[in-house]
Amino acid sequence: MAQISASRFRQKRTNFWSRIFPLGSLQRKFVLWIVLPLLILFICYWLFNDVVMPIVTRHGDEFTLPDFTNQPITQAQLKLKDLHLNYKISSEEFSPGKERGIILKQFPAAGTKVKSGRRLKFVTSLGQKLVPIPDLAGLSVRQAILNLETAGLKLGEIAWAFSDTLPEKVVVFSYPNAGTEIPMGSTVNLMVNRGRASKFTFMPNVVGLTLDEATKRLEDKALKVGIVTYRINENYLPETVLEQSEEKGTELDVGTEIDLVVSSTE
What we know:
The protein is 30% helix and 30% strand.
């Protein structure tokens, strides 16, 4: 009895399908060859995108990546371990003012959404680049300044000695001494021989000093303050030297007057 009922149900369903989509009709072919494959494809896409992929990619496990820059790599390691993240130092760079091991850059950048297990790339600091002081003994002051600039260094103070046994108007030695490694951009002081007479001196740098400080610095070098011109400049405190009439390191006669441009607020 049950078999008869099932047979009648299948026959009724077949007759219903045949009435809507007759055998060999264009409608039947359209459904079988276009609509049905598209429906199957849509179901597969939905299963893959909403069921399979979230499981594989752990969708919903992302978190915001913190900023590790300007931190020592040893300090960042502790936080990376807590977040279950890995890292690789991709490169190292010299960086003025940054100690060795400080993180300069990171990839991905801070604020990026990441998952546990992600490997970050860091660029870390090698610290301040050290350069050796070139041998300046026997050179003219001008050539010594050029050699210092080529080495990435600057001229500091110039002092002079008087000797009959050494060539006149040349560098006797530098301090720190030649060959000493110092941070790039540092200043190097020179001792220069002026022969027997003390008729010459060198122009110091007084820009950035107050007028009183500049006056004392010039007097220490046997120079005098000449014409003082005031210029309105609100970026500096009043009475700050903005310009000097002679460049630093220029050879001058003792007693030469130096003109100055000084800041003013009104």
